[in-house]
Each structure stands twice: as structure tokens, then as C-alpha cells.
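note to self — DONT lose this again. spent like an hour looking for the file last time. sequence + predicted structure for the chain T wanted, 432 res
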Amino acid sequence: MEETRTSPGAASAAPRRRLIAIVVAAALVAVSVPLALAGGELVAGNTPGPDPGWVFGVFGEGFVDRPMVYLCLLWLAIGLWIALLLLSRDLGLRRTAAVAALLIVLFVLAPPLLSLDVFSYISYARLGAEHGLNPYTHSPAELLPGDDAAIRVIDYRGAVSVYGPVFTLASYPLGLVAVPVALWSLKVVAGLAIAALAAIVARLAALRGVAPATAVAFVALNPIVLVHLVGGAHNDGLMAAIAMAAVAAALSARPATAGAGLVVAAAVKVSALLYAPFALVGTRGLGARGRLIAGGLAALVAIGVVSLAVFGADVGEALSVAGGNQGRVSRWSVPAALSRASGLDVDLLRAVLGVGLAIALAWLIVAVARGFDWVRAAGWAALAVLVASAYIVPWYLIWLLPLAAVSRDRALIGATIVITIFQAINGVPVTL
């Protein structure tokens, strides 16, 4: 057998590329530090009061207080992330994982960034655990005056919970502790969820012939994930970790576990249901498909019984409120941006994109039934939902990122990078 030799040029280029990758990773860490150490205007829950120090945490009041500066730093971080994706094989999985761990810890320690949702989570937990009120029929406004969490809920102070019963019940213990303890506990949960998601993506990448280092960098080093998901302590990271664990189970011939996992993920946040039809249609064989359905039904019955016992039929309000979000238009949704650029009515564009979404989803399901890769199809479906949605916030990108990371589809990966760049401005309080 002829010996395989590496050319001298390639051998000498490898250390150089590795050094460049390390430098880019170090630059990403350096830019991430001021993003984590945000000033008062960018810290959610920094309301006037006698002692807001617990909101800022160990970093104090930070030093990046101008939204435009923060946005420029975020775009710079995204540029470095893109460069690192091209160099991730040279950086290697071990170094990529180390950088991801460092940045996750950094943003866990950061104050709550750019969103008040974490205080809604705490308020719903306090409604149920401390006051015995159903968070699907009562709102944070009923905790006022004087509640440290509810006073920091502004836009949705009068809204009932939109979150699934598994997340709501799991959060109840946090309703029995001080608000600062609850806040920082949820920050830790968000960080652990992204770390777990990175580990799952690495495993799936190896299974599907994708470089694990690139897949981990794509998800866990994405600045939107770090700033919004970990920094903002959003439960979408937990939902995505459970959903991708279900995807891994489906691809590892454990359909019953996959079915149960998808239902549990949807009971954290209903958006996880997006994955389910693709997993069902993509699972080959009547026996395997039957076990997936059986696992899902078993989880649904168990969760349903407990939910009805604790919350009654009002738990269905989570579905109606989530769907009602599409009655709103966020400034940096694709329909809104197209409306500003073209002068066309936003409602017309929403309708056109909605029809396009329905056609795309139907086409993708048919394609999967004919043998198309269902993980790849689910990624395109998630992208289509994000593009067509009239209401979108940056952390919704986590619905798409892990699927794209293991999709083996360059076009989907490129589109995901584009929407990441586009969503950078969303949530940062600047006027453009």
C-alpha cells in the first residue's frame, strides 16, 4: 500500500492557520467582555429603586452604556464568529469547547441583558408558588405593589403566562426564594442549557459527518445566543436543548424517547412542536414510527394529567397567547423590514409570506416523505417560520441554529448567518 504523505506546504500552513484561529478566538473573547459588562441602559430590570445592585451582579454597573456602541460591538462579535467558523477545524474541538465554556460563564455572570422576560418567569412562579394563583389566569400586575419581580415586568405586566406547563411547574421553587436568588438561578439554568445543547450538537455533528468543532462554534459561540439566550436567561435555550436531545434519540434508533422528548420540549415552550412533524414523517418503518407516537402520547398523557390537576383547562391559554403574538408586528421582523424598504403595506406582506410559509412547510413534509433528510428539512422549516413571522425576537434564532449546524447544507448555514446579522439590531434600544 502506498504511503500517504502530507505536502510540505500543507504541513507548514497548518500551524499558521491554528495560530490565526487562536487569535480570532481571543479577539471574540475580548469583544465579548464589554458586551457582558453592559451599562445601566442595557441592563433589564435596572429600575429606579433603593438597591439595584443585585441586578448588576458581580460586574457592577459595567462600562458600555451607549446602545449604538453596544450594537457595533455586537456586529463586530458576529464578524469574528463568522471568521472563527471558517477556522474552527484548525482551532479544534477541545479549544472550541473551552472558548464556549469561558463565554457561557461570562454571560451567566453578566446582568440580565436587553429583555425583561426573566422577571416574567419569576413573577409567574411567585403567583403560583407563593400566592396560590394560576399563572394561566392571573398576571404579574396582581403582585403589585411591592414585588421585586413584577415591578420589573413592563410590556407584559397584564399578560397571563405563555409558557408550557413543564417550565411553569419547574420554576415554582424559584417562587419561594428571594427574587435575586431566582434571577441568578435562571441565569445558571440558561448557561447550562446552552452548554448541554453544544454537547448534543457535537455528538450529532459527528454522527452526521459534520466537523463537531464547527457545529459547536456555530451554536455556542454565536453572539446572539450568548447575549440574548444566556445574557437574557431565556427559556428557549432549555427548550432547544430538550428538542435536540429528542432529535439525537430519533437518529440513534430510540424513537419512543424521541417522541417523549419532543412533547416535553413543547411543554417548555410550544415552538418545539415545529420539529415534531418532520421527525414523525422522517422516521422510517411503521414499527419505529409507532414507537415515536407511543412515546409522545405517553408523555402527553402524563404531562396533561398533572397540568390539568394543577392548572385546570386554563393551561391551554399558553397556546392561544403564543399564537396571538402573530397579531403583533416587531420592527425587525422580515415583513416589517420589507414594508419599510418597499413602501408596501405590512399586512399585505405578512399575508404573502404566510402563504409562502404554508406552501414551504407542505413541500418540505412531502420531500421528507419521499426520502429527503428530515433534519435538514426541519432546519429549512425553522428558517421559513422566522422569515415569515411578523413577530420575532433575536433569541428565536435558537429554533434554527442547532438544526442548521448539523444540516450538511451550505445554503441553510449561509441563510442562518444572514438572519443572525439581521437580528443583531433587534432588542438593542437604538433608532435606525
